[in-house]
Amino acid sequence: MAASCAETLDVPPAPEFEDVLAAYANPTAEVSSAIMAAVADELLALRDQLEESEVFDEILDVIVDVQVELDENTDEKGNLVVPGLGTFPAPNAVLEISHNCPGWNPNDAGDSAETSGSVQLTMVLNLGDIRPVVWGEAAQCQFSAIIGERALQSKYHGEIAVHFGHEADSPGSVGDEPISTSEPLRDLVATFILLGTLEVEGKQLEIRRSFRVRDGGVIEILWELGSEGSFVYVFNPGTGSEQWIIDANCPRDEKNEPTCGCKLEERECTLISGSISW
């Protein structure tokens, strides 16, 4: 990991999340039988690929490891103490994170970026806190996803951007303030944008979408429909019966929970207006 610290920094522009966060908070599409007939098969294939790959855990592990290292080297006064370099009071810094992916053979300690791929990320500190967006790319990053007793060979290649935020008062909304290095990132809402190729056991799927991971592992997929707006599909990995739809007519409740069920395998959703099938 490389870092630059100074009172003023030439910070590279982070990906914009404003429109994506707004779409999660206020989805505008009105899900219908016609819409689901057009997108359900693609949505189901994407859900299965995400569930089998565990790609979000792999990316979060890289970021959380850096946060833990920062927290361990921050004293009680908020100073970042870097061995061999000195003490930086409430630093502004650009951190360039370089991570060699674990590969597919856990017994091979010789895995390197050349053989198992890598992840390169940018993290920015603002007065010692982490700015909410971390971004970069993965280059043929190989890792094993452990599903039950199976170890599935997974790989991601493409762009990565992650926004971390606290749950806001308005259901579906998240905050946009910097995060303390001592606050567990996995307890926050992580909103992803992935633009690349996700592979599981040789099966490749092109991805150009946003996803959200909440505490407890629940995953949300933002599905954009062009001029018809967007809706959010929610599922709990490993429990195929727990699936929901959030759209203009099916908002989250006051506890931020979805209210309308949707079972893709059975080709049926139960909306506030009634059941639809396709």
Structure, explained:
With 278 residues, the chain is of the alpha+beta class. The N and C termini lie far apart (50 Å). Strands 1, 4, 5, 6, 7, 8, 9, 10, 11, 12, 13, 14, 15 and 16 form a 14-stranded antiparallel beta sheet that branches. A two-stranded antiparallel sheet has the order 2-3. It is globular and about 65 Å long. It has one domain (2-277). A hairpin with a 2-residue loop joins strand 15 (268-271) and strand 16 (274-277). The chain contains four helices and 16 strands.
Tell me the number of strands. 16
Low-pLDDT segments, ≥5 res: none
Q: Strand share of the residues?
A: 35-45%
- What structural class is derived from the secondary structure elements? alpha+beta
Topology:
Layout: E1 2-5, H1 18-25, H2 33-53, H3 55-72, E2 79-82, E3 86-89, E4 93-100, H4 113-116, E5 118-126, E6 129-130, E7 133-147, E8 150-165, E9 189-200, E10 203-213, E11 219-224, E12 230-235, E13 243-246, E14 260-263, E15 268-271, E16 274-277
Antiparallel strand pairs: 1-4, 2-3, 4-5, 5-6, 5-7, 7-8, 8-9, 9-10, 10-11, 11-12, 12-13, 13-14, 14-15, 15-16
TL;DR?
The chain has 278 residues and is an alpha+beta fold. It is built from 4 helices and 16 strands.
Comma- or semicolon-separated keywords:
14-stranded antiparallel β-sheet; two-stranded antiparallel sheet; 278 residues; alpha+beta; 18% helix; single chain; globular; 41% strand; 16 strands
